[in-house]
Every structure is written in structure tokens, then in C-alpha cells.
Amino acid sequence: MRKPETIERLYLDFDGFFASVEQQCDKRLRGRPVGVVPFVGTDRTAVIACSKEAKAYGVKNVMRIKDAKALCPDLILVEQKPDLYRRAHSALLCEIETVIPIDTAKSIDELTCILDDRGRRDPEGLSEQIKSTIEKNIGEFITCSIGFAANRQLAKMACKAGKDASKKAGQYGNGLAIWHPHMMPEPLFQVKLEDVPGVGHSMKMRLAHSQVITTEQLYNLQPKHMRKIWRSVNGERLWMALHGYDIQAMPQKRGMYGHARVLPPESRSINGAYEIARLLLVKAGRRLRREEYYASGLWLWMAIDGGSWFRTIKMPTVNDEQAIMTAHTALWECARRELPRRTTIFRVGVTLMDLSEANARQLDIFNNDDAIRQKWERANGAMDALNSKYSSTIVHMGEWKPPAGGHVGGKISYVRIPSAEDFY
């Protein structure tokens, strides 16, 4: 495994992305505490994202509106505009590409680049050029923090360290940290254990059982020991990353397609939740077909008064809407039998799982659905083609009435970059 002798990676994280896009687009919001919410008109939901002014009061992402307003009474609530954030993401990437090629967009607000000779020699100059290009061509209210290091994982941690340093200096974001290999590992030891990529809450508890509570202690473990703690090769891969080796991300295999949504107050009944879940599943099915997959399982989940309810159902290996909706209806019939009629449902999610690639689909020998499947697949193909041609849902099965807040399937996502097709 190669160990770089100089910095080779850049990691960029936009600061308070969703709220800063709102401030850039609406002059009335600039310099004021802003909280982005799923929909306005109720306090029975959460602040999805907040501006640096709101964070100065202690408001955090994914905080109940009631709690956020207690910390910041002047908080301005703005309804989410997912398609605006998608377009801002695309515009920002185009501007950055004029300065340096982008290797991977890790999420809607994070990306990584491989440095060329100029970037290795003058990371400060490269950082300044990226930031000035964004300010000049997009606007001054969307800022970013940047980290440089020998590999992507260290660059990500450096980026977070740069953002934290800017907070200590009295500003939010616009940070910069450069971790040259000859400086390591001292900067790494200042990072909190939970800020190491791959160390979530459960892994932090597992490490604590092994008497590992600091990043320095983690760094000093042996690779085989980390593999044992992680119970997979990922522990050993993280050891290589922390020690500055050129470790590449392993290819990810698609495991499921799903959507979830917080329900507006008028849709928090069983009937209202069913209609929104149906639309979410239509969107998931479209994504399944676009990427040429089939599914043989469907999962339905709901957050209800006092807990949650979920069930799964097996399907033939299908991707057409008729088969998927047949399974969906069966799950809701089960929900109606088991849940009290006046159950309040706050959130609903649907997931197509047990995937097969289109060229690897296997028919059920006890359910020869080939003729019917082909008929429905042709019908779905024709509908998908028309909707794609006109960039709108103009042909659909059943009613098409998106709920308050719109954009079924195109909500704010911290882990997936929405496509244009998610918004029709």
C-alpha cells in the first residue's frame, strides 16, 4: 500500500448549505437566524437545517421547532425548497470545476478532489481561488470549509477541524486546515473520537469497552486489533487511512430504494398517510426502473403515537408499478387491522429491497408471472418515457396529489444527491 509523502486530497464541505442557499436567494434572510423546516404552519416538526446566525444561539440541525424557538425566539422558519438546493449544488460544482476537477460529490454539500502539482505546492492559493470563484459567480453568502491531507479520510477530518477552528475564532465556516504528512499524527490527536469517519455512536461504545476513548488511543491500536473491534476489514482499512496510506473507498453495491416523509398535520391519519406513502413508492419505483433493478421485498414503516409500526412483505422479483402497489395495498390492509382507527401518524417511509439487477432477474417457479409482468413493464416504460420527455408527472396510475410542501421523493437529503427526476 502506497503512503504519500505530500498532500494529495482536498475535501470541501459547504457551511450550513441549505440555510445559506436560502439566504443567498432571499435578501430578507441575510444576517438573520434561519431554520429550514419541512413545511410551515405547525410546531409539530423539526428544524432540518439552520443558518450560522441560528447556530450562534445553540440551534442545531434536526432539532424540534419548540426547542429551537426557546433558544432563538427570533428564528425565521423557511419551508424547504429541495429543487432549489439541487440546482444550487449543480451550479456550485460547475464553478469549482473551473478551478479543479471534482473526483466525487460525496453528498449534496460535500465533495472531494485529487490535487494536481499546483494544488500540492500551494493549497492556500487553491483554497482561496475556489472560495473567491464561488463568491464572485454564485454569491458571498454560500461559503465552504476545505481540508487538505494525504488521503480522503484525513482530508475530511482536516476539513472538520478547519471549520471548528473558525468557530473558535468567532466565525462560522469558511475554514481551512492543511495536514501535511510531515505534520502527522499530532493534528489528528486533536480530533474527537466521534468525528473520525466510521466511528458512530454504537462503534464509540464498542471502542470504550476496549478502553479506547481518544483518537490517539485509536491511532495506536494494531491493524488486526481494529479489524477485530470492527468485526470486518473496515477496521483495518480505517487504520490504514489514519496512518496516511492511499486507501480508496470500496465500491458500494445498491441495497435498496426508498423514500420517507414527515407528514403535514392534515395527512396524519391512516388514510392520509396511505396516500402519501403511495406517492413515495411511485417515486421509489421510478428510481428502481431508471437504474435497471428489480425488487422482491417491500418494507413499510410509520412513526406513530407512542412508538412505531412496520411490516415487510415478499414480492415476485418485479419493478412494475402494478405489482409493487399490490404489495403496498396488502401492507396497509395489515396496518388498518392492527392499528386503532384514530392513530396519529407523524412520519411514513417505504423501501423496495432484496434487489436484483435487470440482467440477473430470476422468475418464481411457483408464480409464472412473465406474460403479465411484461405487459405491465411495457406500460410502465411508456409512462416513464412520457414523464421524462416532459419533465413532469403527466401520466400516472391513480390520483397524483402531492402533499403540503410538495416534492414527494425530493426532500432534503444529507446522504443522497437528488436527481432532476425526483422533482416530477
Automatic annotation (TrEMBL):
What does the protein in this record do? Poorly processive, error-prone DNA polymerase involved in untargeted mutagenesis. Copies undamaged DNA at stalled replication forks, which arise in vivo from mismatched or misaligned primer ends. These misaligned primers can be extended by PolIV. Exhibits no 3'-5' exonuclease (proofreading) activity. May be involved in translesional synthesis, in conjunction with the beta clamp from PolIII.
Q: Does the keyword Secreted apply?
A: no
UniProt GO BP: DNA repair; error-prone translesion synthesis; SOS response
Q: Which GO terms describe its molecular function?
A: damaged DNA binding; DNA-directed DNA polymerase activity; metal ion binding
Which PROSITE patterns does the record cross-reference, listed alphabetically? UMUC
The Swiss-Prot or TrEMBL record lists the needed cofactor(s) as:
Mg(2+)
Q: What is this protein called?
A: DNA-directed DNA polymerase
Query: Is Zinc among this UniProt entry's keywords?
Result: no
Recall the taxonomic lineage recorded for the source organism. Bacteria, Pseudomonadati, Pseudomonadota, Alphaproteobacteria, Hyphomicrobiales
**A Pfam entry, by short name:** IMS_C
What InterPro entries does UniProt report for this protein, alphabetically? DNA/RNA_pol_sf (IPR043502), DNA_pol_Y-fam_little_finger (IPR017961), DNA_polymerase-Y (IPR050116), Rev_trsase/Diguanyl_cyclase (IPR043128), UmuC (IPR001126)
Cellular component aspect of the GO annotation: cytosol
What does the sequence similarity comment in the record state about its family?
Belongs to the DNA polymerase type-Y family.
**Source species:** Pseudochrobactrum saccharolyticum
The record places domain UmuC at 9-200
Which EC numbers characterise this protein's activity in its record?
Answer: 2.7.7.7
